[in-house]
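Narrative of activities, Objective 1.

The group set out to show that a structural description can be obtained from nothing but a protein's sequence at a throughput compatible with the screening campaign. Below is one input-output pair from the validation batch, recorded exactly as produced.
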Amino acid sequence: MSGSWLVTGAGGMLGQDLLARLEKDGEKAVGLTRAVLDITDPASVREALDAHRPSVVVNCAAWTAVDDAEADEADALRINGDGPRILAEACQEYGAVLLQVSTDYVFAGDGTSPYTEDAATAPRSAYGRTKLAGEQAVLAVLPDAGYVVRTAWLYGAGGGNFVRTMIKLEGIKDSLDVVDDQRGQPTWTADLADRLVRLGRAALAGSAPAGVYHGTSGGETTWFGFTQEIFRLLGTDPARVRPTTSEAFVRPAPRPAYSVLGHDRWRAAGIEPIRDWREALREAFPALLAAERSAG
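Output recorded for this entry:
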């Protein structure tokens, strides 16, 4: 079963890659940037769905400034909590599937084995709390047509991110101190976009149960290990990267020490989970390198 797609937050890294994937596949899709669609405005959301009549809505719009949310949780909640609820209510009215992009920050981050999709949530930051509110709203309003896809450590050519920052710093620093006590799964936005497209199609076909999915790469590493791999791909000595602890980089919002997510529900939907993070980084790297060098 096919249908049309509407992507919110279309100007961001993930939104750009998602629209590129849909275009490549010949899908009918429209992308609306933050300037065009305010997801916290019910009238604007209903107007957008009435104009485009999508079968699938993918919400890539979010407050993503993790540290700023600590001082402005009310505004973050309006975008990350109220916005998804308003979208879900509109999707219910127009009979559309909603894919809500969420985050590993909904967990406490103190685990020692991959968090399953049904693991208990316990966010430790304002950002995590607001994203969890959005998840809960989507699943409550759309029990049969609401999909939450949690992701983490995203990078892509279409915006600022950790990989592009490390590429830049490699050229100007003799050595780098990088945190080695936070574990996660670097995830390429193009890989996540691919799974969102597959999930949306499976939802329309009735072969993917509604609920929570984890959209992160396979394997795991630390920010230190991630940076060493980036340096290897740059053809430079990874020993220039030195491990340090989170205490060396104190931030307003606490970072999860353990952000590794399990991927069992993809297989239940007949979809393979995302590949290992190293394989993805190798494929993504030329475009990331080109984007960073052209920006510099």
